[in-house]
Specification:
- 4% of the residues lie in helices and 30% in strands.
- With 121 residues, the chain is mainly β.
- The strands form four sheets. It has a three-stranded antiparallel beta sheet with strand order 1-2-3, with no helix packed on it.
- Strand 5 and strand 6 form a beta hairpin.
- The longest helix is centred in the first third of the chain and has 5 residues.
- It is elongated.
Length: 121
């Protein structure tokens, strides 16, 4: 077993082992107990090239079609965007709050979406 005494994500001391996996109950982070401490301290590879990517890492561009992968409740309304809704002709923008896709959805009208909840169609 490894000599890790703190969670590499939130630095909590309240961790426990579940077989070969270490688990932090405070932030729900899981990591391999056999991994070296240098690997556990390094963050996952994050691409920072200012491109907007979908939930699976595919680069999006203006005019693309995307599919919603999670039911999205619309704030201030009783309606929602259902899973599998196909959105055509998106525009990439900075709508604020992480909403980087501007589009029109039939039945709902103009709406801004976060790229983490769509996949390129």
């Amino acid at each position: 077993m490894s000599d890790i005494t703190n969670c590499p994500k939130c630095k909590s001391e309240n961790i426990y082992a579940d077989g070969a996996i270490m688990i932090c109950p405070e932030c729900s982070h899981e990591w391999s107990a056999v991994a070296s401490t240098s690997k556990a301290d390094t963050p996952a590879v994050e691409i920072d090239d200012n491109l907007i990517r979908d939930a699976f890492g595919t680069v999006l561009a203006d005019g693309d079609s995307v599919t919603v992968i999670k039911e999205l409740k619309i704030k201030g309304s009783s309606s929602a965007v259902k899973v599998g809704t196909k959105v055509r002709n998106i525009r990439l923008s900075d709508g604020g709050g992480g909403h980087d896709i501007a589009c029109k959805i039939d039945g709902l009208g103009a709406i801004n979406l976060k790229s983490e909840f769509v996949k390129k169609a």
